[in-house]
Amino acid sequence: MTLADTKRHSSDTGAARGWLSKNLFSSPSNSVLTVVVGSFLFFVLYAAVKFIFFDADWTIISVNKRLIFLGRYPQGEEWRVWPPLWLVFGLGGLSYGLLARASRRDLVWLGVILAFILGFLAHGGVGLLFGGATLFAIAAYRVGRMAEDRPRLRSRLRRAVIVGWLVLIPFTVVMIAAFGGVRPALWGGLLLNVLLAIVGIGVGLPLGILLALARASSLPVLKAVSTAIIEVTRGGPLVAWLFISRFVLPAFLPDWLQVDPIISAMFIVSLFTGAYVAEIVRGGLQSVDPGQSEAAHALGLNTFNVTLFIVLPQAIRAVIPALISQMIALWKDTTLFTILGFTDALGGAEAAFSQTEFIGRQKEALLFIALLFWSGSLGMSRLSQRFEKVLGIGER
Amino acid sequence: MTDNDSIDARVPIIICEDVTVSFGDFQALKGISARVYEQEVVVIFGPSGSGKSTFIRTINRLEEHDGGRIVVDGIELNDDVGNLEQIRSEIGMVFQQFNLFPHLSVMRNITLAPQKVRGVPKQEAEEQAMELLERVGIPEQAQKFPTQLSGGQQQRVAIARALAMKPKIMLFDEPTSALDPEMIKEVLDVMGELAHSGMTMMIVTHEMGFAREVADRFLFFDEGLVVEEGTPEQIFTNPKEDRTKLFLSQIL
What global pTM score does this model have? Predict the structure, then answer.
């Protein structure tokens, strides 16, 4: 018997004790710390688990699902939400398939989230539609994987995906609002948060890149204008800008420029996100070695092509973690819109626990909202890690 | 290669007259006049800080001259952007730090400029890129990314990238200075082959053995001026200026 065998046989508790004494009880002060923090964690976790699985009454959620997810969105118009949602699922699956093989960890998370939604939230027709969307996403993922060894199909799909993501926002707005659809004032619930986030990212990201390029440009007027936009926008808190868009701006704008409060709110998030994205991207632009644009110029490429093909891709790659972090911040900031009286997911939850039969059930409602936002943030953070791996950041 | 008798009969492809360049208060070039003829190989050498890199970078306006004239292939270098892009597409440049595009494959590094500047169709650009990669001896690396290559391989890709634009002139700014010793030869071999094929070249280098073999003419730079100019023969066996003698004795 070798020494290692003897050790293993001598007992697993020995190994466990070794680990404990090394990591948790290495000195008297560490031992005290371990006991204090450990007991604190124990009591908090015990209380949380006890509440979630035994004391809580989750009927507040199942009764108010509609309020939380759709707010005051009118009955009978729900069908308008499904096509964009299916598009998102399909595009998501296809993009993932084109980028990478799903890791086991991602699959587990997706499985947990799906089981939760199907088991707890979506029943009947909604469950079927949702399950269908899921199957659709899986099929799209398979197609994306299949294209891995077929460069022509791959480049064609890649183009389709890019076009798909680009048309998503206009398509969604048209589906929901056009042809006797639902006017913006009635958009609500998580749907509103998602729409605000998507518009904020979809408009704010390109706007931010343009602002960053303008600020880095050598044309004084462009530079001054961009710097002014960025600094003024960043100079105020989002909440202040929202109030201004709602109560101050309409007083100064001519009648034909008066838009729905939600539209002006979308304008504000886009501008706000754009200003922060601009500064992140500017940092990325500065990190690109000047030799890169020299080499590209030396080949005869014009400034537009040098920026588009050489400088910008490298700049954005360098700042993906910071960009995603900005997107996550924006996602959660969409709850601030409740202060303008919109019923987003958080507003829906507040409305739910103001109902007489659910008084005192704030904990359940707020925990559920936290879960919704947390899973959105987690998804974006995982997506960021995927991107970084695929793009080979840190391997440069 | 050149034939000294006929050199004056040939057309100068680069003409520099009293070129000056300043960085703030510091004058890096104090009035350089030089001509480079078609198919000529000119080697520029001299101590560091003598302005030789600045000079070669001025030829394709990576540095702007503030005095004198530069005419390349009949086009004067000035603020006209159209002129500039045309001149740049006819001058290939190889840098000390390679400056390959790290986010693009070797193939894409080479095909990007022909496709975007010259409008060459993708397939044709790729075929041409493969020919060039074979010429520089690394066709098997086409699908790799620059960071997966050794320094010598990267510099050879950089040469292929410059050649893909079918330039009339190639500028080399210390092309082997960032390389490990064992990789210098593979790059010099490619440059030697290029010189023999009749390419007009301006080379800033400290590799005097190589320079002596390929150069038609040497320019010795010191403190922003051309101190001495001559054939390899004149420079190595009978330098006129004391500063040239001193510098050569230090590096040989």
Answer: 0.82
